[in-house]
Amino acid sequence: MKVRLIFALISSLAFSCQANDINRSFTQPHQQEYGYAAVVSKDGLLYLSGIAAPGKDMAAQVAHVYKILTMTLEAHGSSMSHVLNERVSTTDIAALTKANHIRMSYYPDGHFPASSWYQVDRLFAEDAMIEIEIIAAIT
Asked: Which residues are CB-neighbours of 35 under 8 A, at least 6 positions away?
């Protein structure tokens, strides 16, 4: 009985330590209201929630989103050259394909991440055509 109690205590302490080394960043008040963090870091990795940005067309939105991604990564100790994975959701794959040269220009020296693109009916922000999630290594 004592062994089980000690094991349970040690397990709960280990879980508490693991939970404490997770850092969450909230950049907008609505993030807590909707129940998500903009950036989570753990074990040398950054996880960025989907980022969308206004713009008159796909090219403008792509440029704006990647500018925000770059600034966010740099503010958290990383860079675009350390992006490991990107998940792109778009309402128009054809328009995104035409604007892909803008996306590619943000990855220095061809350090492209693993990437998946998905076409969806709509994104959370109704006027958004693109939303991007990132996983990056902290430098």
From this structure: none
